Amino acid sequence: MKEFNIVLAGVGGQGTLLAAEIIGSAAVREGLNVRVSEIHGMAQRGGAVVSNVRIGEDALASTVLEGQADVVVGFEPLETVRNLKSASEKTTVIMNTQRIPPTELSAKGTLYPTAEEIVAKIHLFTSRLVVVEAAELARKAGSRLTQNSVLLGALAAVEGFPISAENLMEALLELVPKRHVEVNVRAFELGRDSVKRGQKRV
Q1: Is 3 buried (19+), middle (13-18) or exposed (0-12) by CB count in 10 A?
Q2: Among 2, 88, 92, 195, which is 20 to 30 Å from 128 by CA?
Q3: Is the CB of residue 103 less than 8 Å from the CB of residue 149?
Q4: From residue 40, how far is each of 49, 83, 119, 137, 200 by CA, in Å?
């Protein structure tokens, strides 16, 4: 495989960086060349966090160029929109519906965009949008803190994703604290099943 590029965008406290680490570890298990990087942002709760994962023999640098993402995983809707520069018509966008309004919106008196406005903006770049109610699925799994595992499960179901669900799951089991393994496995499976059923494409 030449190249497969993933951008993960969210805010601190959502497990974005851990998700990128899990994907990187799973790629190694798959025997693939991989580069993982945190582009910017501070991992404290509430700060914007963006990670790039590049997989394949042509993945020599760690940064995904504008318009070159195969998948954008948006852990938060507004952060998804902010990272659409990485997307093109070939890109699949996986977007969590849970909003975490940034402090600068209230400071500037700016309203958070409506769901319709966000979807319309994404559709300017790509028609391949999968909306995931990760908070609800994580709650069903047993902990709202497992939204990142829900989104990893959703990613595993994307057509063309070069890592097997088995290797992604093995990496998750390795990197998640042992006491939280079962709930994270359930969250992963719920996220994967939600996309496989094809009920969340908009």
Answers
A1: middle
A2: 2
A3: no
A4: 6, 12, 25, 28, 30
- Provide the residue ranges of all domains of the chain, joining segments of one domain with +: 4-196
The residue among 111, 53, 112 whose CA lies nearest residue 86 is 53
pLDDT by 10s per residue, the chain, length 202 = 799 999 999 998 899 999 999 999 999 999 999 999 987 555 455 688 999 999 999 998 889 999 999 999 999 999 999 999 999 999 999 999 999 988 777 778 889 999 999 999 999 999 999 999 999 999 999 999 999 999 999 999 999 999 999 999 999 999 999 999 999 999 999 999 999 886 555 5
From 187, 4, 3, 5, select the one nearest 96 (Cα to Cα).
Answer: 187
Q: Judge whether 195 and 133 are in contact, CB under 8 Å.
A: no
Structure tokens that stand for 16 in this block? 């974005």
- Residues forming a β-bridge with 48: 11
